[in-house]
Amino acid sequence: MSKKDMDRRKKFILELMGDPIYQPMRLREISSLLRLSKEEKRELYDVLDELCEEGKVSVDHKGRYEKVKGKWKKKKDDRYYDDRREEYGSEYGRKKKDKNKKDKNKKEQPEGIQAEGTFIGHPKGFGFVEIEGQDEDIFIPESDTGTAMHQDKVRIIIRDDKKEGKRQEGVVVKVLERGMPEIVGTYQLNRDFGFVISDNPKFSKDIFIPRKEAAGIKNGDKVIAVITDYGSGNKNPEGKIKENLGNIRTPGTDILAIVKSFGIPSEFPEKVMKQAQRVPDHVLDADRDGRLDLRHLQTVTIDGEDAKDLDDAISLTKEGDIYHLGVHIADVSNYVQYNSALDREALKRGTSVYLADRVVPMLPERLSNGICSLNQGEDRLALSCLMDINEKGKVVSHQIAETVINVNERMCYTDVKNILEDTDEEAKKRYEALIPMFFMMKELSGILRNSRHHRGSIDFDFPESKIILNAAGKAIDVKPYEANVATKIIEDFMLMANETVAQEYCTEEIPFVYRTHDNPDPEKVESLLTLLHNQGVKIQKAKEEITPKEIQQIIESIEGLPNEAMISRLVLRSMKQAKYTTECSGHFGLAAKYYCHFTSPIRRYPDLQIHRIIKDNLRGRLMREGRTEHYAEILDEVARQSSVCERRADEAERESDKLKKAEYMSYHLGEEFEGIISGVTGWGLYVELPNTVEGLVHVNTLRDDYYVFNQESYELCGEMTKKVYKLGDKVRVRVADADKMLKTVDFELVSDIRDDEEEN
């Protein structure tokens, strides 16, 4: 870069930082704001480097740049630039502090109540502490976080001086246990040293890596860094590279980084694989003994086209007014024994994780896709729930039995849907013998759905995302993946089996693992009702606590409205998260008194665990061999671990989708799309496109007026024009930016479709 170009760029940066609305930003944030290319980003670093040396720009310990105000004076204790140049210079080592020197920045310990909890970081440096049994988190200002990092167990002092209308504040006084000893992120080479920038935005501090600890690591590599020194208030943590995951451009590296960052085991230990190899690949004669032989039943599996782990099959007949529904579930417990290496690894994983380009299975594929999968034309061991259901959708009798089945056809959702909707003559011809059963399934599915609806079951019908990747792992399309008649059939039958099994074992008071969903918090419900009222939705609660039926009425009252999906999401957010427990406390969302997860033992550990309980009960071993006490002892931990793993999997799946959606939109910069406002905040509008991609229209880009956020009505209102943007409004946006690293999409508002329609 020439001196003239350098001077011109320095002037521009100083003008940018001199703008009143400018807030201190990191290098990558400035690059994103200016939409710089990779080469321009490197040039930006040189520009900022010179400005720092000249004393015109300073850098704080978080790496955020700002213009120096007044006369510049070097302050070695709090300047990020000096930390890098002087503390981590050619010697790479951290200079030791004078132990006798008093820390001038040390604050007196505030007065208040002591408490312990988990620190949840925020990209801006502050955080929150979650305290078990306490609904509201404690806010920790940036200046009071100490050395606490995301997921650390900490001791805090909750301040006495709570201000009205504000969240309770606290101060971290001690880190009890480090929650993230390893960080997954991107290695950034900076001359004589490097940094790892965490992929998790809640981990706000970059990890300093001495050159000797990063041998062979290239700029832009995805790595796992082990933290060796957690730093102090004005010093970044220090670490070393444990594993190089590969260059970010290598196919699959981006998703692998997500897997590693959530601590999801991606490879099975050798002992587990050896045990899996010893499992037979066919049903042994000895395993058939004592089982009910159901191979004569017309039985099908119905799954997605690319599914390989088929753990549920269906049979259905009708006599008079009674439907005989068989839900046949793979008997995984026959091959995965309690406390074996396979079992311990399955509990550790808790669930299979379904990411954009891969599945991380709970069990090795030899089992999940082989002997445990209900493959067409092969004898398989199953645990069957055989239900007699009347025309009102009530189970009048049932039997749970160990069985042998043989699936007649491996069906996919698309073929069944097309047969039932009379749109595929080829499929109708191919599966002619099964067509009467499919129509009977549709009939029974409708009855069961109506029955659940009558009691108040809440049906959130959000379209899921289907991300299409090419051979190189790049996202080439994003589509909504909506439920159809075939997916609803399977859903309705699985729900019925899960309820039936849960009711039997709750009634018999046998130790068990249930799927429970608590009632919403009254405060959240009141906030929701206020918001709905402001959105024109009038709902009155009959009692103090809202019922599932009343939630259902809300969902039905907004059906067909432009803001339907948005309000549905707000309703969903007001509800608690379902979890696994040993108490049969009911499922609010399903309006069910009894519920468990019985139907997916290949991919969920709770299902596998309750299969063992059921089989021990069927064989009379619960009382005879003292198995009841055994289950009472272990099930609380099974439920807790399963809930933790489920949340981890959900978060990883969301991050995977966000990453690939950002990648897809990065190929469409400058293009225009129609969308609906899905969220309104003080910093802008979230707009969702028909393909389920969501992006932000930042309030600073709405240049026709100064917009103010109305928290009660969730609206942005223009002060002069009185123009209002609210949930459900149709808008046209242009793709301004899509950052795969940050997993964000930025839009610019092109037009308000309402205005366009009025003009036409």
What is the compact description of this entry?
With 760 residues, this protein is of the alpha+beta class. The chain is built from 20 helices and 33 strands.
User: Helix fraction?
Assistant: 25-40%
- How many helices does DSSP assign? 20
The geometry reads as: globular
Give the averaged pLDDT, no decimals.
87
Strand neighbour order, sheet with most strands: 13-20-19-16-15-14-21
Low-confidence stretches: 71-105
Number of strands: 33
Q: How large is the radius of gyration?
A: 29 Å
End-to-end C-alpha gap: 52 Å
How many domains? The number is: 6
Strand content is: 25-35%
Question: Which descriptors apply to this entry?
Answer:
760 residues; alpha+beta; Arc Repressor Mutant, subunit A; OB fold (Dihydrolipoamide Acetyltransferase, E2P); globular
Written description of the protein model:
By secondary structure, the chain is α+β, with helices and mostly antiparallel strands. It has 6 domains: 3-87, Winged helix-like DNA-binding domain superfamily/Winged helix DNA-binding domain (Arc Repressor Mutant, subunit A), CATH 1.10.10.10; 112-177, OB fold (Dihydrolipoamide Acetyltransferase, E2P) (Beta Barrel), CATH 2.40.50.140; 182-250, Beta Barrel (OB fold (Dihydrolipoamide Acetyltransferase, E2P)), CATH 2.40.50; 270-518 and 580-653, no CATH class; 522-575, no CATH class; 668-759, Beta Barrel (OB fold (Dihydrolipoamide Acetyltransferase, E2P)), CATH 2.40.50.140. Helices cover 32% and strands 26% of the residues. The protein contains 20 helices and 33 strands. It has a 7-stranded mixed sheet. A 5-stranded antiparallel sheet has the order 5-4-3-6-7, with no helix packed on it. Strands 10-9-8-11-12 form a 5-stranded antiparallel sheet, covered by helices on one side. A hairpin with a 5-residue loop joins strand 19 and strand 20 (395-406). Mean pLDDT is 87; it is low at 71-105.
